[in-house]
Amino acid sequence: MSNYRIMETNNFGDAIFYRAACHCTDEKCDLHLELEIDNELHMILMNIYKDLWFEEYWGTNNWFEEKWKRIKGALRLLFVGRLKISDTFIFGDVTQIRNFLDVLHGGMEQLEKNIKNDDKLLPQLKKELLTGRR
Ligand SMILES: [Zn+2]
User: Fold this and answer.
1) Does the chain have fewer CB atoms within 10 Å around its N or its C terminus?
2) CA 133, CA 44: separation in Å to the nearest integer?
3) Ligand 1 mean position, distance from CA 27 (Å)
4) Number of domains present in the structure of the chain
5) Closest residue by Cα to residue 89 from 19, 34, 35, 3
């Protein structure tokens, strides 16, 4: 299911991929989502992919300060293994927000249907995935 500024980019039955266009029109700013049935964890997952930018996060205009912060971030990633960083995705208007939610809702309905029709899933696992109860 695709909608205004949000499109389904792939569908494998147990995983549906979407791309949402950022209002700033930079493709590098787009948000990529994956709704996925994880058969090993017995959960429904949402994976979010987005390019993050150091200079935008740190808000500096000083070239040396920006590079030093990047080096510190790279070292933190190297030795700690994770970074806390954020970036902005801009919705163009309320219609895009509604469509974003509609597309996700449609994806969840598709996954629920696929879970119900999957003969390989055991009844108990189906119940866990659909109700979230264990
Ligand atoms: Zn953007």
Assistant:
1) C
2) 12
3) 8
4) 1
5) 19
Average pLDDT of every residue of the chain: 85
| Cβ(129)–Cβ(115) below 8 Å | yes
**In this structure, is residue 21 part of a structural domain?**
yes
Range of the domain at 29: 6-51+87-131
**What distance in angstroms lies between residue 17's CA and the mean position of ligand 1's atoms?**
19
Chain length of the chain: 134
How many Å lie between the centroid of ligand 1 and the Cα of residue 133? 37
Answer whether residue 66 is part of any domain. Answer: no
54-101 pLDDT per residue, tens:
765 566 778 888 888 889 889 999 999 998 887 888 998 899 899 999
Distance 55 CA to ligand 1 centre (A): 14
